[in-house]
Specification:
With about 625 residues, this protein is an alpha/beta fold. Helix content is about 45%, strand content about 15%. Bound molecules: phosphoenolpyruvate and magnesium ion (MG).
């Protein structure tokens, strides 16, 4: 077992909270079937990785590493009487992996020539090398490791050694070693994929990437945090982490090769840092952070029943963004003024058929039941791009899914699907302050089509004698630059606007919101984005339509002053961000915010805007920025 883990007295695993989350400690139980050897391997040296903070909170715990093929490589030990069996498993897996490599060699040679087949011949040669088998076997016998862990450990050690040699050619050979590792693991694990929803012990999940649907099934009691090599700040995976309140860092670049299952890891979702094998001093520092966070958190808790009102008396509606019906409770617990964005895609995830009208209605009524008379904005289906459904009908194999048949475009081609959801939304409107919101609208005609279908559905319900709110407020998301540019015209067609900065930023700057390699371009503070927001706010004010911002930007403390100063009076944020944003709103005046916005809008680069806003926010509330 990792010594660093043992260094945590009694509590083997602890979860540190975010600014807004409670601190909690959990004991990590040792599974009955395994035992920890007396002479554990010494921990690797501490390494700090920097990525993109997407879900606040800090957690410390043992790593569960999922490589690109989602193999789990746990640090598992076997009892001495099982060592023989473990060696047998290893040799069988090595033999099978060598056979696979020779098979590949033959197939590839036939298809593309012997020079390519030779790559696999080299793989087979290495796998059959008795020195390699000897090294792995020694780790099994001496340390009591399970075969898959020993394989992973040895192969990664060699790969890292190659990578560290200052030679491009040798470094690329490391890739072959990872391939070989996978080939052996595939045989050891029998192609098994890790079932993240069936974890027995609390872990920190480290993966190349997690899909939104994989993230949706994570159990926050078992997954203390996750960190991924890929991913961007506004990816749906990141949003899902926020919804589940699991601390997360994404876009770390390649790091999985530096870590083994069971290693102690800290994920700092506040600052976008992942620390592998933290030394004792670092662990202590994180424990110290705990007390200051706790006191700030209790201050925030006291705000729950106070209004989000500026120092000069301007009342701001602070609403919650939700993905799952039960999150309405999280909104209530944080004193939200309602739900400003209910993303309904979760109803379609993980199933082969569409949800029925009754299933939609049931979900909406669950939320209404919690909210009482507070507003609930239900957004119609926004599937596509990074929001994948499991139903193959909606996973068109497109060259460019972010620009393809997604969201409202998809609904307009599937009227049964669209009308089913509209019927449920209308029926729910008989029971509370429900509003309907259309996503990804890019032209006025598209919006008119949506409204026309809504009118048809109303007629049907009327004929059937089913109750609904005839004046159901209709809104459009402004998340495509064309919609922002045409806001003046769109405002005549709707009751409210909701600015979706997550998409607005990616489409304005042509920077994929899920792609870590263009993360530096993807910034809410970019002057181009700010100018579009300004256009939309002006149009909304001119036509007196309500307007809010529901993208992740509205929950990022450094943008609160800016949005307030630009004229926003409604913000819809991830529930756990509500207290922090309320605290900022209650600490400033509109006059101050207007001044800040005015200055920010004169700046020419995202970096200048962000630095300026960070400074201004720090001046008012150092705790939220520092
Ligand atoms: C947005 O694009 O800002 C938004 C709120 O929608 P989503 O993140 O669900 O695409
Ligand atoms: Mg969007």
């Amino acid at each position: 077992m990792n010594l660093a883990l043992l260094a945590l007295p009694k509590k083997r695993c602890l979860e540190l909270s975010s600014l807004n989350k409670r601190w909690s400690f959990e004991r990590l139980k040792v599974p009955d079937t395994f035992f920890w050897p007396k002479h554990a391997l010494s921990p690797g040296s501490m390494e700090i990785k920097r990525g993109i903070a997407v879900s606040a909170g800090v957690a410390i715990g043992p790593a569960l590493v999922l490589d690109t093929e989602s193999f789990r490589i746990p640090q598992r030990f076997v009892e001495s009487k099982q060592l023989e069996e473990e060696r047998r498993r290893l040799h069988e897996a090595l033999a099978a992996a060598a056979r696979d490599a020779r098979g590949n060699q033959q197939a590839v040679t036939e298809k593309v020539g012997p020079q390519y087949g030779a790559i696999f011949a080299a793989h087979a040669h290495l796998i059959e090398d008795p020195t390699l088998a000897g090294e792995i076997e020694a780790l099994i016998v001496k340390e009591g490791f399970a075969a898959e862990y020993a394989v992973s450990r040895i192969m990664r050690r060699h790969a890292k050694a190659l990578e560290s040699i200052d030679s491009g050619h040798l470094a690329t050979r490391a890739v072959d070693l990872f391939d070989i590792e996978k080939a052996i693991l595939r045989n050891l694990l029998g192609q098994r994929r890790e079932q993240l929803q069936q974890l027995l012990e609390p872990v920190i999940v480290l993966a190349h990437d997690l899909t939104p649907s994989e993230t949706a099934v994570l159990d926050p009691r078992k997954v203390f945090a996750f960190a991924t090599e890929a991913g961007g700040r506004a990816s749906h995976t990141a949003i899902m982490a926020g919804a589940l309140e699991i601390p997360a860092v994404v876009g770390l670049g390649r790091f999985l090769t530096d870590v083994s299952g069971g290693d102690l890891v800290i994920v700092d979702g506040n600052r976008g840092i992942v620390i592998l094998n933290p030394d004792e001093e670092t662990q202590e520092r994180y424990e110290h952070m705990r007390s200051s966070l706790l006191s700030f958190e209790s201050q925030l808790g006291e705000l729950r029943d106070l209004p989000a009102e500026t120092r000069d008396g301007e009342r701001i509606a602070l609403l919650g963004n939700i993905e799952f019906p039960h999150e309405a409770v999280h909104c209530e617990e944080r004193g939200a003024d309602g739900v400003g964005l209910y993303r309904t895609e979760f109803l379609y995830l993980g199933r082969q058929s569409d949800p029925s009208e009754a299933e939609h209605l049931d979900a909406y009524l669950t939320v209404l039941h919690t909210l009482g008379r507070k507003p609930l904005v239900i957004r119609t289906l926004d599937l596509g791009a990074d929001k994948f459904a499991t139903n193959p009908d909606y996973n068109a194999d497109e060259r460019n899914p972010f620009l393809g048949l997604r969201s409202v475009r998809l609904c307009l081609r599937n009227l049964t699907l669209f009308k089913t959801q509209m019927r449920a939304i209308l029926r729910a409107s008989a029971f509370g302050d429900v509003r309907i919101l259309f996503p990804m609208v890019s032209t006025i005609l598209e919006l008119r089509q949506c409204k026309m279908i809504l009118a048809e559905v109303k007629e049907d319900l009327e004929e059937e004698g089913i109750a609904f709110n005839r004046k159901l407020p209709v809104g459009t998301m402004i998340e495509v630059p064309s919609a922002a540019i045409m806001a003046d015209q769109l405002a005549r067609e709707v009751n409210f606007f909701s600015i979706g900065t997550n998409d607005l930023i990616q489409y304005t700057l042509a920077a994929d919101r899920t792609n870590e390699t263009v993360a530096s371009l993807y910034s809410p503070g970019d002057p181009a984005v700010l100018r579009l927001i300004e256009l939309v706010v002006n149009a909304a004010q001119k036509h007196q339509v309500e307007i809010n911002v529901c993208g992740e930007m509205s929950g990022e403390p450094i943008y609160t002053l800016l949005l307030l100063g630009m004229g926003l009076r409604q913000l819809s944020v991830t529930p756990h961000k509500i207290p922090e944003i309320k605290k900022i709103l209650r600490s400033v005046t509109v006059t101050e915010a207007k001044k800040v916005a005015h200055e920010a809008l004169c700046l020419e680069t995202a970096r200048d805007v962000n630095n300026f806003l960070r400074e201004q926010t720090r001046r008012i509330l150092p705790e939220v920025v520092g």
